Amino acid sequence: MLLKDQIALVTGGSRGIGRGIVLALAREGAKVTFVYHSNADAADALVQEVAAAGGTAKGVRADVADPAAAQTVVDGVLAEHGRLDILVNNAGVIRDKLFLKMEADDWNAVINTNLTGTFAFCKAVAQQMAFKQRSGRIVNVSSIAAEHVNKGQANYAASKGAVNSFTRVLAAELAARNVLVNAVAPGFIATDMSQAVRNLAGEDNLKKIIPVRRLGTPDDIANVVLFLCGPAAAYVTGQVITVDGGLSLGAV
Ligand code: NAD
Questions:
Q1: Residue 235 catalytic?
Q2: What are the tens digits of pLDDT across the range 115-133?
Q3: Which residues are CB-contacts of 193 (< 8 A; sequence separation ≥ 6)?
């Protein structure tokens, strides 16, 4: 087991990519707390699935866009386990609209969840990882939309572009204290988030523009997160790793 008895925290863990990350970390022996927003049944089902496989997971309800949430959640993990080795900032939302129709509310909802939520959770774990433990791994889930233009995603692209920049600066500031900070940038992953685009564009059409000819799965992302949290990535920090089946190559 790569992460035996390590303490991990994953935001947005009850479905999609986050769920895949929870399962992968628990499979490798980490004790995982995950934040879910509203679906208690899905959270319970995940806890049971992890337990059935011999792992340990716990769901905590919180809204990552609430400025007070991160510290409360992190304090709870520290009270229970006394340390925190891995933080994965995965919770995210889209509110796609062309800019002329985009309202401040659409902007704030996406920035507050994807960017400020990531900041708040990093801030809440930083003292513990950097000073008390002098070790830790942080992985932020970004998107290829940060660097590749999709009309209708000004808010989302801005949030994920900022997550990439934030990841690099945080990595530089925390590296000397053995806290490694990286990001993964998924392409098209088959989850609830991409359902509307998949319906609109058609899955077969999307597969034609992805060089490996399939959509990604939560496992495709979870495997790279696992690498970034494990011993093989001990010399990797400040990187944004694209996981998109070659989509961003722009090959025709
Ligand atoms: P999803 O919509 O299936 O899951 C998102 C999760 O985040 C859900 O569990 C949701 O409850 C949680 N969440 C959203 N807002 C929250 C809040 N305020 N507080 C707490 N939890 C909240 O989407 P997904 O595809 O699994 O997305 C996971 C991450 O991957 C996101 O950051 C997303 O931007 C990123 N991503 C997804 C794709 C894709 O194609 N699916 C591509 C690139 C990046």
A1: no
A2: 999 999 999 999 999 999 9
A3: 16, 92, 93, 94
- Structural domain range at position 87: 7-243
Nearest-CA residue for atom 10 of ligand 1: 12
Asked if residues 167 and 122 have their Cβ atoms less than 8 Å apart, the reply is no
pLDDT at 252 over 90: no
Tell me whether residue 226 is in a domain.
Answer: yes
**Listed residue (161, 170, 163, 141) closest to 244, CA to CA:** 141
Number of domains in the chain: 1
In a domain, 212, yes or no: yes
Query: Residue 12 Cα, ligand 1 centroid: separation in angstroms?
Result: 6
CA 239–ligand 1 middle distance (angstroms): 20
**Residue 214: inside a domain:** yes
**Predicted ipTM > 0.90:** yes
